[in-house]
Amino acid sequence: MPIVLFRVDERLIHGQVVVGWGGPLHADRIVVVDDELAASPWEQELYCLGVPPEIEARFLTVAAARGDVPAWKADAKRTIVLVRDVETAARIADGGVLAGEEVNLGGIHHAEGRARILPYLHLRPDERARLDEIAATGAEVSARDLPASRKVPLKELPAG
Fold it and tell me: Rounded to an integer, what distance in angstroms lies between the CA atom of residue 79 and that of residue 57?
């Protein structure tokens, strides 16, 4: 089964992802791609507290994830991939690794230099440019906080 959700969400594993997305998508596996978290077993344990036992949780570096994406696309396990920021998504997508996949923009919150795009989405101009680069590799980029919410394609996102 393909990757059922590739999501950029600063909070990574949390209720909205596990219950809001994981339930309707019947996720078998959640993969968090984050170089720092991949090297921190105690932080991984904290994140796993919110994962039901029937869902496998893995933590990988960007380099490892780039190599595993083709296997996830071909695997029978329904996989949710989570990254913390646009830059990590862009590093994975580089060279077309995510071509044909949908990149979901979830919770990216206010920070200095970021403009409000949607209530749950704030972006800096450089992040917006990186999203355009991801889309140029063949990935479909859109924003949606929950499965029942309206999906907003990248080209329809307000400028902010």
Answer: 10
